[in-house]
Design a protein that fits this description.
By secondary structure, the protein is of the alpha/beta class. The protein folds into 2 domains: about 240 residues, Rossmann fold, CATH 3.40.50; about 120 residues, Rossmann fold (3-Layer(aba) Sandwich). The protein is built from 18 helices and 15 strands. Strands 1-4-5-15-10-11-14 form a 7-stranded mixed beta sheet, with helices on both faces. A hairpin with an 8-residue loop joins strand 12 and strand 13. It is globular.
Amino acid sequence: MKGKKILLSEEDIPKYWYNILPDMPTQLSTPLHPQTQKPLTPDDLKIFPKAIIEQEMSSEKEIRIPDKVREIYSIWRPSPLVRAYNLEKALGTPAKIYYKNESVSPAGSHKPNTAIAQAYYNKMEGVQTLTTETGAGQWGSALSLAGSLLGIDVRVYMVKVSYNQKPYRKSMIHAWGADVYASPSNKTQVGRNALEKDPNNPGTLGLAISEAIEDAVTHENTNYTLGSVLNHVLLHQTVIGLEAKKQLEMVGDYPDVILAPCGGGSNLGGIGLPFMRDKINGKDVKIVAVEPASCPTLTKGIFHYDYADVAKMTPLLLMYTLGHNFMPPSIHAGGLRYHGDSPILSQLRKDGLLDAVSYMQTEVFEAGLLFAKTEGIIPAPETCHAIKGAIEEAVKAKEEQKEKTILICFSGHGHFDMSSYDTYLSGDMKDYEYPEGKAKEALEYLPEI
């Protein structure tokens, strides 16, 4: 029997995270204070622990992973690298397709890789409570898990459309002892203002971020955590790509194409940045961000300083953005409904090192079902985007009769997304094009720098 899984031992859990900042051809522009528009200083980031602030700005290429974090990682890491033989056969392609299965974590996604790290550093500084936002619930679940394992209270603001679509994500968050509120909520002034303008506001990640930050700054001994976008988040996620490189070396392979779903950029950065270092040094590898057509930040956004949240409480980041006021349609891939993107990935995109594509949600779910029927795992709607991209690459390889190695980040399973699959299977799912009019209106509110 030919081997399907490529496995590492617990001793192979990376001892260091990879920091791409020193290797980037174009250094990141300095984040700006949201009020003064002056360069941000460490004193402006008091809602984060000192260790996280240092990582955000570090010039070290490798940052040691604390022993306690590696110990907790060992609950599910190293994650398997799996050859998708059945999917390859169904497509009739000469391409080899591998997927790095991050759905094996207790929370069912890649998100605990940074949740554990962030909770650990806050715990070391004596912080008692963490606040955060979540879209589809993956990040909120992961931080709740981290809080449970490390003894920290957690409050989660979950985008309302996902809060209603995914009731069992709320159950997971509660099971790990955290609190969760539908955003916009009546718990914060930001939320109350949004509800006053529109009582039926479905919520956005940008709005949920504003609520979580307001909660953190108005309560003592409380810090804020972010599950994507920022440099330290992508840093923690590089365990994915570091493991994948070692696993591919075990079978003498290297990817031609790497794909991952992209909302804020955490799992794309996690699997892609260790390979991006090779690309910067001349290696021929294509790294692709896959977005929803209804919220195509990297494919149709503009490269500009913008706020990461609706209430303009976050620092101004130079990134691809659709505008902090942009209200994306209520698509089923709730984790990808974000107006901005990671400054790291945005700069790499600007420099021509990162590719990006977007797809409609019905074709994405079609791809997810093919994966489920061939490989057995039901993917999260976000993960389906990467699968769709991989299928397109595999079909192209078939048409060109070229061998190709494709690697995807299987960012999470879809066990708590079955209502979305029901909508697709019943024929009720609708495609949403990029709403040009609303987007242009949102871009009018970009800050003048």
